[in-house]
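Q: Fold this one first, please.
A: Sequence and structure below.
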Amino acid sequence: MSFQGWVELTGRLIDGAGVAAVVVGVVAASVWAAVRGIRGRRPVYRPYRQFLGRSILLGLELLVAADIIRTVAVTPTLTSIAVLAGIVLIRTFLSFSLELEITGRWPWQKVPATPETPATPKASDRPAKGTSRDSSSD
């Protein structure tokens, strides 16, 4: 098999992994939500959407990788690269939109910091009563 044949096969395998990630994610999220709903555990809808969104994001990442491999290694023409750029642009927009839906913030935003309580020194860190920090003897 030629190099281009191997690259095409690799691209197809990664495409299949991307589709499988979405399908398995949909099935797993649906089963999880159904079990949670039957048991009466709430909430169901928002975690279901987050689970589903993460599966779609993973699938999109794999599909973009497969497109890049096939376009750059197999058919590097100006037209194929322009098509790849369009596909990557659309999938990137979808990824950002899904990330916003899942986490409530853009991918480049930091996780909001939680206020921490001031640290109090542990008893072992404080000097014992009647002693000073400088315990040098005369």
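Q: Good. Now the second chain.
A: Here it is, same layout.
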Amino acid sequence: MAKKLAVIGAGLMGSGIAQVSAQAGWEVVLRDVTDEALRRGTDGIKASYDKFVSKGKLEAADAEAAFARISTTTDLDAAADADFVVEAVFEDVDTKREIFRTLDGLVKDGTILASNTSAIPITKIAAATRRPERVVGTHFFSPVPMMQLCELVRGHKTSDETLAAAREFAEGVGKTCIVVNRDVAGFVTTRLISALVVEAAKLYESGVATAEDIDIACKLGFGHAMGPLATADLTGVDILTHATDNIYTECQDEKFAPPELMRRMVDAGDLGRKSGQGFYRY
């Protein structure tokens, strides 16, 4: 019998996690607060499967079978019989804690509760439950079907068994894992990209170099596939500003304080690719 996964949040990350998990054989229930959000999520999954089929990377029958393993709901109670739950909602600690508090009262004793947070300490989320030893971070990367990395984060009370189960899950859906053994805000990857984006934005803001030249320097000088300002546009200037703010609030390290330019871009709605304007015009 296939194991059951509940994914909470049908946005870009949640739908991507649902997609790769269904393809790996999990029975997936995808939950969001509105039918419209769920429709957008499943439309994105279907389009992604179709693209893989058209490129010969996935058989049409396998794509159909995977898509059939995904059900949707607006009811959080649907997670009650899940073996593994991944939360992938907006990066707000109070929202996440409330979801985990509710899930804790719904799911089976052995169920593992995972968060896809990119910056919020897992310990803060786990403290909302009576099972902090069974809470873990599973930080996937966007777009989930393409990106190979999953950052596993051990909270202060996460057990070895929970971490091992999270690794088995992530590797089972095709990801390579790194382990964050100390639950610092931003973990490894978000701290690295946040520090780089903040410094790149400061260089651009102060007129040291153009956005294009800063990104070219990182691509050709350091071998990065994409420059930090283009990465900010792809991720969302608002999302990165929020993430760096979370890290700065936690550790008070000035290198994570978003420059005024990034805050003003968010105020103006220049959020990157999704708005048509960020550090670049799209």
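Q: Anything worth noting on the second one?
A: The CA atoms of residues 52 and 58 lie 5 Å apart.
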